[in-house]
C-alpha cells in the first residue's frame, strides 16, 4: 500500500479524463499528483468513503468539516479552493456527465478497485452534525424560514464577534481610500446606506433583517431618525436590543423578533434591506417587494443590498451549491441582478441606481477569515471544531467567488414615486449622496455619540474593541 496515493490519483484522472489540480497525501504517507500543486491530506479511509458516496463538492465538504480531510501545512486553503474552482470551470469538466456506463465501466471499476485495495469501501458515513436538518414543511414558509435562519445566525453572538470584529456587521464593507481597517470600512458602508436613503432628523426608518442592530444605531446616532429593525434570529434580536439600550437609544430604536411578512405598521420614510433578500427565495420575492413598496410613503426610498449570481450558461440548468445549502444558508437563493431589478420594478418601484461592490466583498471576507484564524482556539471553544471549519471554508470560498466574478453584490436604490411621478431625488448622484446641509454626518443633539473628534471612518459601533 506504499503507493496508495498514486493509485487513487491515477484512477481518478482516468475517470475524469483530465488530471486533477491537487496533490493527494494518503493516510499511509504516500503522495501523488501534479508537482507544485497544493496538497490535500486524506487522514483516514473514511475520507475516501465520503467521496465515494458523495462525489464532488458535498463529499469534499463533509470530509473537511468532519476532519477526515485536511489542507497540508505546506499549502494554503485559498490555493486549494482556487485550484478546484478553476478545475470545475474547464470545458471538459463542465460538460462531464458520468452515467452508469462510466461509473460501472472500466474507468469506474479502476476507482472502485483502488478504493477496495485501500479498505475504504463500506457503508455511507453519517454526515457531520453541522449539516442542516431544516427541510421540513413548505419551502419559505414562515416556520421553515425561521429554522433556516436559526441554523445560520443562532450560532452564538460571541462567535460572530470573533469573526466580524467590533462592528458586528455581517455584510459587505465599503473600502474607501480612508478605510484602513475592517471597522472603518463597515462604518463607511453604514454611512453610504444612510446617505443613499437621504435620511434626515425626524424620518422613520425600517431595517429588514437588521442583524445585530449596527445600521439602526448608526442611523439614529448620526441622522436623527427613529428606527424599527426586524429579524427572525432570536440571538441577533437579543444582542441588538442590548446594544440599543446600552447606547441610550431605547426611545428611538425598536428591535423586533418579526418576519418581514408580518410588518403592518407603515408607512416608513425609508427602508433598508441589507443581506436579507437572499433568504427570501424566488417564490416569495414578489411578496417581499410588494410588501416593502406598500410600507413606504410616496417618495420614500428602498436600499436593497443583495448578493447576485451570474446568469446561467445557455441551455444549462441552474445548480445551487450543495455545501452552501446543507451547511451555511439552507434554502437560500441567489438571482442575477437583472432579475432582481425586474422584480422590484414589477412591484411598483422605480430603480434609480445600481452599484456593484463585488471587489469590496472579497476584501471583507478575507478580513473575516483572518479574524477567525487569529482566534481559532476560542472559535472552536464557542462553536465547535466542525462549525468553525464550516465558516472558514465557506468564507474563504466566497472570497474567491467574488474576486473571480462568479458571484456579485449590488446596492440597488429604488423609489416609490408619487402619483405625479416625482421621485424626490436631487438631479445628480453627487447631490443625493451628500447629507443635506453637510458633507459628513454629525451627531444629533441629545443623542449619545462618539467623541467630537471622531469621524464616520473611525467610530467604533461595537461593544468592545476590534479583536483583529
Cα-atom Rg, whole angstroms? 24 Å
- Provide the β-strand percentage band: 5-15%
Helix content: 40-55%
- What is the mean predicted local confidence, pLDDT? 86
Main sheet: strands, sense, barrel: 7 strands, mixed
Total beta strands: 11
Fold and architecture overview:
This protein has 468 residues and is α/β, with parallel strands linked by helices. Helices cover 43% and strands 14% of the residues. The chain contains 19 helices and eleven strands. The protein has a seven-stranded mixed beta sheet. A four-stranded mixed beta sheet has the order 2-1-3-4. The C terminus is likely disordered.
Task: Sum this structure up briefly.
The protein is an alpha/beta fold. It has 19 helices and eleven strands.
Primary descriptors:
468 residues, alpha/beta, 7-stranded mixed beta sheet, 4-stranded mixed beta sheet, 14% strand, elongated, disordered C terminus
Furnish the topology, listing elements before pairings:
Blueprint (H helix, E strand, L loop, with lengths): L3 H13 L6 E3 L5 E2 L6 E4 L2 H9 L3 H10 L2 E3 L5 H12 L2 H4 L5 H5 L1 H12 L24 H12 L3 H8 L17 H15 L7 E5 L5 H10 L2 E6 L2 H13 L6 E5 L10 E7 L10 H11 E14 L12 H7 L8 H10 L3 E7 L1 H17 L1 H8 L1 H19 L3 E9 L13 H4 L36
Parallel strand pairs: 1-3, 5-6, 5-8, 6-7, 8-9
Antiparallel strand pairs: 1-2, 3-4, 9-11, 10-11
Amino acid at each position: 500500500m506504499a503507493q496508495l496515493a498514486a493509485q487513487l490519483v491515477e484512477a481518478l484522472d482516468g475517470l475524469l479524463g483530465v488530471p486533477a489540480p491537487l496533490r493527494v497525501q494518503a493516510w499511509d504517507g504516500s503522495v501523488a499528483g501534479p508537482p507544485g500543486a497544493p496538497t490535500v491530506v486524506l487522514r483516514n479511509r473514511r475520507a475516501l468513503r465520503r467521496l465515494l458516496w458523495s462525489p464532488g463538492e458535498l463529499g469534499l465538504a463533509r470530509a473537511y468539516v468532519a476532519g477526515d480531510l485536511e489542507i497540508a501545512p505546506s499549502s494554503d486553503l485559498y490555493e486549494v479552493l482556487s485550484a478546484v474552482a478553476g478545475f470545475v470551470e474547464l470545458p471538459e469538466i463542465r460538460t462531464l456527465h458520468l452515467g452508469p456506463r462510466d461509473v460501472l465501466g472500466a474507468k469506474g471499476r479502476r476507482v472502485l478497485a483502488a478504493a477496495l485495495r485501500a479498505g475504504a469501501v463500506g457503508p455511507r458515513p453519517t454526515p457531520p452534525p453541522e449539516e442542516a436538518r431544516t427541510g421540513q414543511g413548505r419551502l419559505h414558509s414562515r416556520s421553515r424560514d425561521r429554522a433556516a435562519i436559526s441554523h445560520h445566525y443562532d450560532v452564538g453572538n460571541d462567535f460572530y464577534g470573533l469573526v466580524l470584529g467590533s462592528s458586528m456587521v455581517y455584510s459587505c464593507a465599503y473600502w474607501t481610500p480612508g478605510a484602513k481597517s475592517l471597522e472603518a470600512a463597515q462604518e463607511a458602508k453604514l454611512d453610504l446606506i444612510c446617505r443613499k436613503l437621504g435620511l434626515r432628523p425626524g424620518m422613520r426608518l425600517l431595517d429588514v433583517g437588521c442583524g445585530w442592530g449596527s445600521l439602526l444605531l448608526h442611523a439614529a446616532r448620526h441622522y436623527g431618525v427613529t428606527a424599527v429593525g426586524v429579524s427572525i434570529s432570536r440571538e441577533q434580536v437579543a444582542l441588538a436590543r442590548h446594544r440599543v439600550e446600552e447606547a441610550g437609544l431605547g426611545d428611538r430604536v425598536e428591535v423586533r423578533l418579526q418576519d418581514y411578512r408580518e410588518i403592518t405598521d407603515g408607512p416608513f420614510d425609508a427602508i433598508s434591506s441589507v443581506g436579507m433578500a437572499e433568504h427570501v427565495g424566488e417564490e416569495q420575492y414578489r411578496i417581499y417587494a410588494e410588501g416593502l413598496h406598500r410600507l413606504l410613503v410616496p417618495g420614500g426610498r428602498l436600499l436593497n443590498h443583495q448578493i447576485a449570481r451570474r446568469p446561467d450558461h445557455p441551455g444549462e440548468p441552474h445548480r445551487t451549491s450543495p455545501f452552501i445549502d446543507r451547511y451555511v444558508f439552507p434554502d437560500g437563493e441567489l438571482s442575477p441582478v437583472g432579475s432582481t431589478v425586474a422584480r422590484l420594478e414589477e412591484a411598483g418601484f422605480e430603480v434609480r441606481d445600481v452599484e456593484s461592490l463585488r471587489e469590496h466583498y472579497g476584501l471583507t471576507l478575507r478580513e473575516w477569515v483572518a479574524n477567525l484564524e487569529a482566534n481559532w482556539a476560542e472559535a472552536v471553544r464557542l462553536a465547535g471544531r466542525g462549525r468553525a471549519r464550516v465558516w472558514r471554508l465557506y468564507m474563504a470560498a466566497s472570497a474567491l467567488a467574488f474576486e473571480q466574478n462568479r458571484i456579485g453584490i449590488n446596492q440597488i436604490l429604488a423609489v416609490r414615486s408619487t402619483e405625479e411621478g416625482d421621485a424626490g431625488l436631487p438631479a445628480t448622484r453627487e447631490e443625493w449622496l451628500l447629507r443635506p446641509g453637510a458633507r459628513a454626518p454629525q451627531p444629533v443633539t441629545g443623542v449619545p455619540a462618539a467623541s467630537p473628534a471622531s469621524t464616520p471612518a473611525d467610530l467604533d459601533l461595537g461593544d468592545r474593541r476590534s479583536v483583529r
